[in-house]
Amino acid sequence: xxxxxxxNCAINTATLGFQCPIAQxxxxxAAAGFGGIAPWRREVEGQNVxxxxxxxxxxxxxxxxxxxxTYLPSLTREGLQANIESNRRALEDAAILGAxxxxxxxxxxxxxxxxxxxxxAQVAEGVGLLLEHGKRLGVRIALxxxxxxxxxxxxxxxxxxxxxxxxxxxxxxVSEPSLGVCVDVYHVWxxxxxxxxxxxxxxxxxxxxxxxxxxxxxxxxVLNDRGMMGDGVIDIPSIRAQVEKAGYKGLxxxxxFSAQNWWKRPVIEILQVCAERLATSV
Amino acid sequence: xxxxxxxNCAINTATLGFQCPIAQxxxxxAAAGFGGIAPWRREVEGQNVxxxxxxxxxxxxxxxxxxxxTYLPSLTREGLQANIESNRRALEDAAILGAxxxxxxxxxxxxxxxxxxxxxAQVAEGVGLLLEHGKRLGVRIALxxxxxxxxxxxxxxxxxxxxxxxxxxxxxxVSEPSLGVCVDVYHVWxxxxxxxxxxxxxxxxxxxxxxxxxxxxxxxxVLNDRGMMGDGVIDIPSIRAQVEKAGYKGLxxxxxFSAQNWWKRPVIEILQVCAERLATSV
Lengths: 282, 282
Hints:
The structure is a homodimer of 282-residue chains.
Chain A: E1 9-12, H1 22-31, E2 36-38, H2 41-44, H3 49-58, E3 62-63, E4 66-67, H4 77-97, E5 101-104, H5 116-137, E6 140-143, H6 160-171, E7 179-184, H7 185-188, H8 194-203, E8 207-212, H9 236-245, E9 252-254, H10 267-280
Parallel strand pairs in A: 1-2, 1-9, 2-3, 4-5, 5-6, 6-7, 7-8, 8-9
């Protein structure tokens, strides 16, 4: 079996189920040979962020993405402003961490609303303001379109084409975009326009991240029953090939939400299986 | 409270949880004042189909759609042929029932396959053959794009635009199409291109059915935890207005899969609440 080049691969800490403090996750991920980490705000905020950044650097890890934004849409202007402000602070931590991008899951419908057009308008407004802040900090923003099953509760931004349209609407056509998209196979694999839109994302230099996991059949819980690469139905090598053909040269990030399976296993075992599957099934 | 014009509304029998034989469902739906019914093959096949058709007619009900196709994709040519053949027989029953359309849920990935392009090609081939059979029988075929959460197991056809593309690919541009689409709010409400694609479906005379239910927050089971109109987050009146503006003049069909809630209630209560909600929330 050929080994994967793990230096070109990153572990999103959610994959480890938040079983241990960030310091231990950093050390375990580096020890297993991976080249990058994507930490979550719940592990970072309220901690000594420069110290975490230093530990990550000294472990030889890149920070692919910092996860993730506060949802933007709100029933009130004050709520929207507060959500934007929360993301401003997170962007500052992303800068300290040296994150390649701040990952934005934009939010769904505010409780009590059925107005998805209004939610989308608030998202566009908020991302526009945050982009300016990110540029000053030197942090790229990566919009992550989520699978449409999450529209109501997590992301009114679903199609890759829609995310690219939003990037263009906000930033226009630029040679060095500060606004990009995360392509997560779980969210996009089903899309009949996937090949077209990955190619477009490449032409527009918008691919800011590439996440892998798998879609299990059956899926018992669409949020927390995602599969290890190879255990589901996604043709991951095909999507990877398209992303790389489109010019993506960044790390491949493993992000698996799996409350009933992987999160119950020891961190070292999870990392070992990720490494194996990156070689065989990605 | 204004009453809905129930003569312009139909009940998909799945909404009643298959609690009683089709004959009783027919009588209950007609007695409640509805103008149409959409029966399922499980209630019809192996029965005296002409007798069921007669009972429906004598109850004064139209048959909006006959539910539904055998999934088409298969790992083998023989499997595909068998699936097409099964649908041919169902089309014949649809003709006897006088159904306005035969509803096709096209199927997802065959077990063991990750090749969604192959599945889509088989669907196009199968629908093409069935369309010819349907024309001879005088039964329109209605492709129902499903929510992308069902891609793996139920429908590799997800976007309304994709269904319209398939219609055009198979039938071309004709003045009286025999191939159309079902617009079910549950499957399409999240789509950022929904308004564009409903308008297109109208221009191309493809809207062969309009189904309503609601998306609950939270949704405990994406298959069988659908909501009664008004209990979820879908702006149903907006989608209805778009469908009618696009020229749809057919019945509004209520189709609710709700194993833990509505299916546990008496048929007469389900029908009464459907009638109320058609007036207030559709």
